[in-house]
Amino acid sequence: MHDYWKRLRRNWLMRRADIHIVSFPKCGRTWLVLMLSKVIELHYGVSIDNPLKLRRYTRKCRDLPLILQHHDGGPEFQRAEEVETDKSFYRGSKVVFLVRDPRDVTVSAYFQKTKRNINFHGTIREYVYEPVGSIETNIAFYNIWAENRGIPDDFLLLTYENLHADATRELERLVRFVGIKGVSTETLQTAVDACTFENMRRLESTNALGSGRLAPRDVDDQSTYKTREGRIGGYVDHLEPPEIAHVDRLIGARLHDDYAFYKL
Question: Are 221 and 72 in contact (CB under 8 A)?
């Protein structure tokens, strides 16, 4: 019954949400959510027990839209052809779509599935060719959203790489999109500084948020952390040349031109 009511509440929230922050898993969504949470806390002078749950801020900030972050149906457990193509559900709401280089996503997802969730038991080389939830699914997920970006009332594309390059600028874009007015540059910078990789690793290592979403499976094993590396292009240290060539071919041949910046 607990699971039933949990699903029922989740569906109710999905229908009510004004803004959806959508991403394929392992694209940096936790980082983005924590920065936005910090902006809300500083700007409105409020706090909640778990800043990862953006929706709870609406209880204290009447003019704040209901923001819900999710992975749009659990694509990490689906084959490419199983990913939902109909996005009419999002008509009438706004969507923030966060993407990351599929090569880095693939490597990060491998560690997530073998060190945290333990739902894949092969090698990283095998995972590159895995049909369920690996890079082919990731590309399909990106493409479907590129083809449906006109369905929501408004659509904002953010990239993990741009967040790394200038987090303050990208956070400002997000804040404007959400509709929070009058946020100072100082507030934006403070939020960014509070959510550096080092600070997030500290929060995770002590489970400061009391949430499994940001807690290591093994404090002494870096590979079990959600904040594992936080690097751009780190896939080259984990994949062998044949696998890199394979993922490069997939990206070049299949990835929508909206993400041409990931094509070599």
Answer: no
Give the CA distances from residue 8 to residues 15, 93, 141, in Å, rounded to whole numbers and listed in that order: 11, 20, 25
Task: For residue 226, give every residue at least 6 positions away whose Cβ sits within 8 Å of its Cβ, in sequence order, or none.
Answer: 30, 112, 116, 204, 213, 214, 215, 216
Residue written as token pair 């952390």: 225
Distance CA 159, CA 34 (A): 16
C-alpha neighbours within 13 Å on the C-beta side of residue 167 = 20
Q: How many distinct structural domains can be found in the chain?
A: 1
C-beta neighbour count of 254 within 10 angstroms? 15
CB atoms within 10 A of CB 179: 12
Cβ contacts of 101 within 8 Å, gap of 6 or more: 160, 161, 232, 233, 235, 262
Residues 6+ apart with CB under 8 A from 103: 135, 233, 235, 239, 244, 247, 248, 251, 262
Domain with residue 15: its CATH number is: 3.40.50.300
Domain of residue 22, residue span: 2-262
Q: What is the pLDDT along the chain (264 residues), one digit of tens a residue?
A: 556 666 777 787 889 999 999 999 999 999 999 999 999 999 999 999 899 899 999 999 989 999 999 999 999 999 999 999 999 999 999 999 999 999 999 999 999 999 888 888 999 999 999 999 999 999 999 999 999 999 999 999 999 999 999 999 999 999 999 999 999 999 999 999 999 878 877 766 766 666 556 555 556 556 555 665 678 999 999 999 999 999 999 999 999 999 999 998
**What letter represents residue 237's amino acid?**
D
